[in-house]
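Board work, copied verbatim: Hydrogenase expression protein
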Amino acid sequence: MSLWTSLEPASATVDPGDSTTVRLRLRNTGDVVDEYRFETVGSLAPWTVVEPQSLRLYPGTTGTAELTFSPPRTPDATAGPHPYGVRITPTEHPEATSVPEGNLTVTPFTEVRAELVPPTVKGRFRGRPSLAVDNLGNTKLTASASGSDNGDRLSYDIHPSNVQVEPGRAAFVKMTLKPRQIIWFGSEEARPYTLAVRRSGVAPLEVAGTYVQRSFLPRRLAAFLGTLVALAIAFVMIWIAYRPEVRTDATEKVQEAGIATLPPAPSPTSEASKASKAPSADVAAPPAATETPQANEAVAGAGSDGSEKKETDTQERTAATAVQQRAAKDPSGPHICYRVYATGEGWSDAVCDGETAGTVGGGTPLKAVNIAVSGTHGTSSGAYAHDPASTSGEGHFPDPWANAADGVDNYVGSTKKDAPNMLGFTINVDGGKGAVCQSAYVHNDAWLALACDEPGTGFDFTYAGTHDNDSWIEAFRLTV
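↓ predict structure ↓
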């Protein structure tokens, strides 16, 4: 070979955003004049400048070139050692190319940026922001996230709580903010909070956000309910003050007429002859409670064609019908009956006292619910439905709460063709007469734990179902 080379120094160190210089010395050991061209190779080539780019040397002479390394202060210039080389190509003898090698160590630097997406979230029971952690340094970042607020009004569910981020990459931390107290009525309230990104040996990086907590019942609905209660009180007071007298003469006369028209009890000797004759049209039929077995047989055998016309009960069996029948069989305690209106299936059969209404695991959303009670002074209920305009991931109460007295049907939800799916419903029993308990089955989930209202404690109702706008309630059980 006709060339001698040397890098001075062979190993160097540089800070990102700064520069350092390495000297390249070479000697023409051949016997002819030659020109040498320089080219850097390796990962540092884009940030390296060689001056001059070529040298012309006479035999036995030595020349010098300088290599200037200027890595940027970006994640591309990763921390650590970076081998490099300088390709030297002689013009006269290109086959005698030489590549002296050196090593340049880039020092580490750390730069972190954190951002809340979105910075403000709204909800009644929870908010779900995300924290974006960007590693703008040139070394791997390990950090943890935690939340805090003045007054400890929020709880924080952070997943994952620890992240490792490569240089030039970002990691997203998902969070669920939950208020420790529910706002039942009134206007929404802003809850400022702070998320801290913590690293070992460095002051935490804090990011501020706001959770806007909405009231459980919207202000307009609360005003409507207040007006409704005031009107109800006014109506009761007017009724008490101006209640009309109701005479019972008509009832007494009906009873007397009923007693007067009772036929004499048939004697055993005339039973056969009466069975062969049709009853007179001028004589009123006796009440069912006073009929004897012999009289029933006589009526059954009468008629011009000898056949009986059977009545068919085509009336719909609602929850009120079912609870009245249940109360008649068992008057010892309160009862609750209910049925559901499901998509594509219509109204189900009414069930009572802890039996399952709906289809478990069938994926069929409920559209409406029919409830009736006995022995509890009535019930109140409201449907919580899918909200297509939701920005918080939750549904809403589209209609005011519905009320019904004992033995009367209470309907919530809608049976219209385009009615939204029910996510759940609230329910309580009125007048402080007992409590109502419920357990609900949510789509793609499982049976939720049994929950009851607590009259007189501020929790005068219980909620059956989910608040997730992408899910729905499939089945439930109720007891009182």
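The CA atoms of residues 35 and 56 lie 4 Å apart.
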